Every structure is written in C-alpha cells, then in structure tokens.
Amino acid sequence: MQLSTNHLLGIKELSPQDISLILSTAQQFKEVLQRPVKKVPSLRDITIVNLFYENSTRTRISFELAEKRLGADTINFSASASSVSKGETLLDTVNNILSMKVDMVVMRHSASGAPHFLARHLPGTAIVNAGDGINEHPTQALLDAFSIQERAGSLEGKKVLLVGDIMHSRVALSNIYLLKKMGAEVMLSGPPTLIPVYIKQAFDIRVEYDLKKALEWCDVANILRIQLERQNQVLFSSLREYNLSYGVTSKLLRSIGKEIIIMHPGPINRGVEIDSDVADGTQSIILQQVENGVAVRMAVLYLLAGQTIMM
User: Fold this and answer.
1) Can you tell me the distance from the alpha carbon of 309 to that of 95, in angstroms, rounded to the nearest whole number?
2) Tens digits of residue pLDDT in 167-179
C-alpha cells in the first residue's frame, strides 16, 4: 500500500486509509525500536533537511532521531544561524538547499501555509509539515492517535476531549481532523475566549465550558498548552485564575469517579493547565506520546520516501 499524497502538509489532506497505513507502519517501526539494534537502512540513499524557523525541542529531536534510525543523511537548518537573518527569502533558502540534491524537507514555520507554499514551488521534493503557525501539526496528531490506539485499542467510538487554548493550537486542529475521520467523538473545553466561535458549526463538535462535565463525558483528555507567545491581547485574567477553572488536578480527576487517559503534546506548563501529580501519574501517557513520536515519524518519512522515488 502507498499514501495517496506526495507530501504530509496536514491531516486535512489525508484519507482515513492514509492514516491507517501510517499508524500500522508506525507499529512495525515501534517493534524495531525495541530491538538491541534500533537502526534499519530503509532511507540509506535519502537526504533530508530539517528546516526549522521556530524553536523546537521534542519535534526536532524526534524527527532527527527518526531519520538517523532509518539511515538517512540529515542536514539541520536553524533560521537564526542562517542567511535568513540577512534577509534571504524562504524560497531562495530552500532552492539553495535543494541545489545540493536534497530529497525531503521537514519544515516548521511560524506562518500558516508555509509548507504548502514550498510544495507548490518544489513539486519534486517531499515536504513534511512539522508545524505551521496556528494551522496544523500533523505528525503530533498522528502520534496522539497512535498513543490512544495503543492504550485504548481503537479510535472508533472513543470520546476525546481537547482542553485549553484551542484558538492558537495547531495540535487541536490536526487532532480534530484526524479524530473525526477515524470515527471518534470530539469535545472542546476551555475559556470562551480561547475557543473560536466558528469551530462548533464548522466541525460539528460539542463545546463544554464546564471542565468537570467535559471530563465526565470523555474517555481521553488531551490537555493543550496555553500559548502566551501567540496571544496579542489578554484573553483571561491570570494563569492562576485559568488553573482554578481549567487546570486538570488529581482532586478534579478523583471527583469524576472514573479513569480516563491523560495526554499532553508538550511542553507542559506545570501548575497551569495540568498539575505535576497528574502529568506524572498512572493515567498519563505523556511520555509514551514522546516515545511513539519517533516511530510515527519514521513511518511518515519511510512512506513519503517511497513516493519520492516514484516522482
């Protein structure tokens, strides 16, 4: 089986079959990662550039590790240490890199749509979106889905709650697309100022402003970071006030009377959206998400490399 696309620009462009193929391939690579020798030479002749215009820890390291595990040659690009700081355009930067015969580009950018721009101008190169503005973060949604499937058995019929800064979260949008395509039910919870007014009708999903009621409904709670760096106005009174109303605490979880799966894409603001005893507790699969990220990104790169060779 093959992907129906030559790029991974977003979950929006993937079919349910594409998603299932990526998740099943990731399962095979996770088994590889449990072996004493964790490398496979699947991408031995492929060169990949990691083009990061925004700071990143987990995503960047995860992609780099996935590339090395697959035997690819990698080039790491940081905008702050490049000619971008001298005024070089995005297209010029990438054209210069591709003149060195690069096969794939993994890109993170603060501008929504930047990976789509590259895909239009560089049709012979596979583009992987590692996060673009407040648009999408497809590999995060894929690893979240893989983690839910691993713990709960399947995605279909599962009730998944997304809590927090929905307005500024590319993780939220990618998760909504994926979960809806794979038959899960989705609910949003958070301050009214952080949930876009259009989203309920656009995606036909429920919104619940009472966090306790939302947690009583769900099987899985994916807790999103408050993205203060993307907020250009005051959207809630204080972090303390946010924690009192929408922070997930062990006391709150005990009060709902059932076990739910706790997730977080990171980085965690401990004591704001989630307390440490919840993040590190038995219901949490946050570290499993990080571990699964390598296998999922290996699957994405492997499948797209097959498409690249055929282009």
Assistant:
1) 19
2) 889 999 999 999 9
